[in-house]
Structures are given as C-alpha cells and as structure tokens.
Amino acid sequence: MSKPNILCVDDQREVLAAVKRELTPFSAEYEIVECESASEADEVLSDLKNENQNLALIICDHIMPGENGVDFLAKIDASDNFPNTKKVLLTGLASHQDTIKAINEAHIDHYFEKPWDSDNFVSVIKKLLA
User: Fold this and answer.
1) What is the DSSP letter of 24?
2) Where are the domains of the chain?
C-alpha cells in the first residue's frame, strides 16, 4: 500500500524547498508532493483520486498567479474528494477579509504567516497528521 500524501503548493521554489525541509521528519511515513501552481496541484489531485490514494494534508500559499490559495483550498473543501484532508494556508500578505474567507469557506485547519517559526511549524503539522 502506498504512503499517504502531503501536497505542498507554492509558486516560489525557495518556499517549496523550505516547506519540504520542514517536512523531512515526516518523509518516512508520507509522500511529499510539490506543485508550483493551483492548476498543477489540480492535476496531482486528479491523479490521487483516480489512484484511490490518501491525501493527508495540503499546505498552500495564498498569493499565487492564477488561482489563489484560499480559492483553491475552498474548492478542495467543497469537492468532497478528500474529506479528511487537513488544510494549511501560508501567507505573507493576507488581508483580514482573506483570513475570514479562508476560515469560513476553505475551512482551513491552520494558518502560518511567512516567515514561520520552524519548531512551531513542525509541531503544528505533527498535530494535524496525528
């Protein structure tokens, strides 16, 4: 049986690399998948669904070209394809309205501002995956 997946979505490669480093303690138990856009993530999600794979967690940037992170996470939440998936939003530039929308429409499980505290990040992810 394949490992559950953690999907990381950010249009900045250096942020994706930083998130992947933070997730290193989880790599033995989880497959870590990186995407640079919501559209690329949509393709991965389609593959995961078609292969009947588990998606444990999505970590998504807010401000991205094309579809923003809040809208992407809200779409995932509304689809019911991955009902038990935990959702985390990363942002450096969110307004109060964006935060409210993320909570009310995307039902995010956690919110991190960039730059995040590494120990806190790992601790929160550990709790979300437990």
Assistant:
1) G
2) 5-129
Structure-token match 């991190």, residue found: 112
Question: Higher model confidence: residue 95 or residue 46?
Answer: 46
CA distance 111 to 91: 8
Report residue 88 as tokens: 């985390």
Q: What is the pTM of this model?
A: 0.93
> In 25-63, which positions are buried (b, 16+ CB within 10 angstroms) versus exposed (e)?
ebeeebbbbbbbbbeebbebbeebeeeebebbbbbbbbb
Q: What fold does the segment set 5-129 form as a domain?
A: Rossmann fold (3.40.50)
State the number of CA atoms in the 13 A half-sphere of 105 facing the CB: 13
Q: What is the DSSP letter of 26?
A: G
SS3 of 65, please? coil
The distance in angstroms from the start CA to the end CA of the chain is 19
Q: Are 73 and 48 in contact (CB under 8 A)?
A: no
Nearest alpha carbon to residue 38 among 6, 54, 61: 61
Mean pLDDT calculated for residue range 82-103: 82
**Amino acid identity of 118?**
S
Instruction: Tell me the average pLDDT of the chain.
Output: 92
